[in-house]
Amino acid sequence: MGYDNLKLEKGMYRQQGKSFTQVLESLDPSENYRGTALEGTDAFQRQLKRFGIRAKGPGSSTVEKFFATMDSAVLFPEYIARTVRTGMEENDILPSIVATTTVIDAMDYRSIYSVATDDDKALKNVAEGGAIPTTEVKTKEHLVSLTKRGRMLVASYEALRFQKLDLFSVMLRQIGAYIQKQQLSDAVNVIINGDGNSNAATAYTIGSSPMSGTKGTLTYDQLVEFWGQFDPYTMNTMLCSTSTMTKLLKVDELQNPLTGLNFQGTGKMTSPLGAQLHRTGAVNDGVIIGLDNRYALELVRAGDVLVEYDKLIDQQLERAAITSISGFAKICDGAACVLNV
Q1: Fewer CB within 10 A of the terminal residue: the chain, N end or C end?
Q2: How many domains does the chain have?
Q3: Vertex 92: Cα angle to 42 and 317 (nearest 5)
């Protein structure tokens, strides 16, 4: 069956365990288009081509184009979801702080964890016939708390029907950016306070042992001391607010010409300790979060971006919800710490 004669219907959004695009792909596999002009497109993109819908660019179609037929109207919720997802991925810090992502098809999830004692961290010889040191992996006592984050799309079809998709996508990407910001705030909260399993991050304060210096003053010495708390992990990522980032940038060692050259050439700040710096309003002023992003945090998603497809297909855009359900779990104790400046 070719892409140009598929029958599209609302039920394609309701198939258990499959997204709309996955349902389309099962009916119109992309592998069938190898060596053709449509190679590199997925099943959804081929449906846009089928109905002559240009989603972006100077010659983008109007919103009304989706509703020319009942079949093409079925594509509108997926277009919304994809564009919102693009907004979530723009300037998204989460991939830089998450060790792994787990996608579930339920509302309950219990993660696993490992707490390494000093004895576990020691490298010991195993004599012939001797006992091999163990690392205990346990199931967490409390479930991962999943939170629905989203925005309500409030607009009439009459107000949008003649608008270009290129402009409309800007509004949708902004919705995605809002959702991403809320999810990042959830991640920061779990890193600092734990996921409900008595695993809050260890907090250090400048001027209080083992940190030297005077509270309110940040120098390279304190950064090195903070870095030293991560053994056997490596502090390869740091999160802080704009105000705290300003203090960091004033540290003499961060004014190294090579550091500035890297920032000017790539737009990315790297500290002298080798950690990638990220600025975010999700972290309070005067707080620096350090973590080993290979071991610290698990992102749990309950499906993908969800839209109220019935309303959108029926041109009832007023108060159509766009949501994403996710949660976070701590993986290894000691892989994330907090420094109070």
Answers
A1: N
A2: 2
A3: 60
